[in-house]
Amino acid sequence: MQIRARMSMSADGFVTTPTGWPSLTADPAFVSGQSHGIREFLEGCEAALMGRTTFEPALTNERWPWPDLDVFVLGSHRPAGTPDHVVTDSDPLRLLEKLRAANRGGDVHLIGGPRTIGTFHALGALDTLELVVLPLLFGSGMRLTPALSPDTGLAFQRERALPGGAVEIVYSCRGSRSRLPGTPASQR
Ligand SMILES: NC(=O)c1ccc[n+]([C@@H]2O[C@H](COP(=O)([O-])OP(=O)(O)OC[C@H]3O[C@@H](n4cnc5c(N)ncnc54)[C@H](OP(=O)(O)O)[C@@H]3O)[C@@H](O)[C@H]2O)c1
Fold first, then answer.
1. Which residues partner with 172 through β-bridges?
2. CA of 65: how far to CAs of 54, 56, 59, in Å?
3. In this protein, which residues make up the domain named Bacterial bifunctional deaminase-reductase C-terminal (predicted)?
4. Over 50: is that where the pLDDT of 187 sits?
5. CB of 119 closer than 6 A to ligand 1?
6. Quick check: CB of 110 below 6 Å from ligand 1?
């Protein structure tokens, strides 16, 4: 089982629009039906993992966003209306144990947001970080950092151009170390 985070972001580095929606929702190519590679990404996934803030809007969606995935949510309480099959926990380690216990060999899509990605990365549980950089500038919004530590070591794996001008970049987060200038060798 691999835990794979995938975030869309504007070219100026924001993972949400200025009004707090995931960046992808502002991309005309996505709105007109381009999947931005998510279908291929989900082929190997059996579960979705996310923070409560990212999860809650799904409860009022017309369509359940994860019909084919087991869903795990990190949050201090179980939001009203959460379907019975959704697993929630307030403790990230305990949630990770539940995720592993339920795993049938597929990967986990770590949806976000930044705080939850940072949490699982701090536990050493994040395997890959995939970024879909959109051809848009927002000027403001939420950044991936500092919730995900700027010291996160990223080892480049691959990239590809997506229809509509977006670019997908995949980094491994395991076995890589910070290469920020001035980082003492003992901390690398
Ligand atoms: N661009 C993209 O691809 C993308 C993808 C997903 C989300 N987003 C955006 O990201 C934004 C939300 O991001 P976010 O970072 O603020 O929130 P988040 O990670 O979705 O959820 C944060 C919540 O998760 C729980 N949590 C996280 N870390 C925890 C820890 N260490 N211990 C206990 N609980 C923990 C807490 O729930 P409690 O408050 O219940 O304690 C916390 O308030 C949204 O605006 C969403 O649109 C963007």
1. 128, 155
2. 12, 12, 9
3. 3-151
4. no
5. yes
6. no
Q: Which residues touch 105 (CB under 8 Å, ≥6 apart)?
A: 1, 46
Task: List Cβ neighbours of 158 (8 Å cut-off, separation of 6 or more).
Answer: 169, 170
Percentage of the chain modeled with pLDDT above 70: 93
| Number of neighbours of residue 180 by Cβ within 10 angstroms | 11
* Ligand 1 centroid, distance to 90 Cα (angstroms): 12
CB atoms within 10 A of CB 148: 26
Res 175: pLDDT? 56
Q: What is the mean pLDDT of residues 159-186?
A: 72
In eight-state DSSP terms, residue 147 is T
Strand-by-strand arrangement of the 45-51 sheet: 87-89, 70-74, 45-51, 107-112, 3-10, 128-134, 167-172, 155-161
| Full set of structural domains in the chain with CATH | 3-177 (3.40.430.10)
CA–centroid distance, residue 166 to ligand 1 (Å): 24
Q: Which atom of ligand 1 is least distant from the CA of 132?
A: 3
Mutate to test the pocket of ligand 1, among 54, 55, 110, 144 (most ligand atoms within 8 A of CB): 54
User: How far apart are the CA of 185 and the centre of ligand 1, in A?
Assistant: 32
